[in-house]
Amino acid sequence: MEKAVRLENVTQVYVTEERATLALQGITFDVPKGEFVSLIGPSGCGKTTLLSIIAGLIPSTSGQVTVADHLVQGPSSKVGYMLQQDYLFPWRTIADNACMGLEIAGELTEEKRQGALHLLEEMGLLAFRDYYPAQLSGGMRQRVALVRTLAMEPELLLLDEPFSALDYQTKLQLEDLVVETLRAKGKTAILVTHDISEAIAMSDRILVLAPNPGRIRQSFEIPEAIRAAVPFEARELPEFHLLFRQIWQEFGGTPHE
């Protein structure tokens, strides 16, 4: 199967005047094209650092990362990054914000602008194209941020707790929307989250990281019944609850906690 992402023995050391800190050690895994992988683990296990390395925002101390068979040596339009905050420009309309990435990359053609507007329509936002971010809810703004990311047609999407600032109902709605959109477009994605339920409901596979230093502790394949359902419905399946207990125990919990 074609690999969208490959990490080989990625290690990260942060050095200050006082000490050197080993943040990540020997991280190795592949992500096949079209797969949705979640990274979960306690604070301090280096999840966001790992995403930053994959995105080319910081270089790893050793090891290497390839995306679409290209060695990552810096930021690339092949990789889209969606964060906790939407970072929309308040003085620009929703349509203009959706095209912002294309504009910055110097790739904003009329065809690609129409593509961004089509994505807004798919997200139920076309009627708001001339609105400004302050006029939209948090969930709507995150949908615009997703459109801005997808408009770049990246090979890989990195999602760093994109729903953590939203209310629970909006979060569940966006989980369904994101999963259905990425599946329909055959996109590869890596999600960082603290929410075990979110990881199970959205993913094809979960990697559990251990801290100090960050390293892969366990890998869980998501059962087909869960993968076939949208996240909201997946939460009701018996397979979901069984897997939740198994992963929770990896965090040091017990089935009754």
Automatic annotation (TrEMBL):
Key word Nucleotide-binding present: yes
SMART domains, per the entry: AAA
Entry keyword set: ATP-binding, Nucleotide-binding, Transport
Keyword Transport among UniProt keywords: yes
UniProt GO molecular function: ATP binding; ATP hydrolysis activity
CDD domains, A to Z: ABC_NrtD_SsuB_transporters (cd03293)
Domain ABC transporter per the UniProt entry, residue ranges: 5-236
Highest taxon above the source species: Bacteria
InterPro entries the UniProt entry points to: AAA+_ATPase, ABC_transporter-like_ATP-bd, ABC_transporter-like_CS, ABC_transporter_ATP-bind, P-loop_NTPase
Name of the protein this chain belongs to: Spermidine/putrescine ABC transporter ATP-binding protein
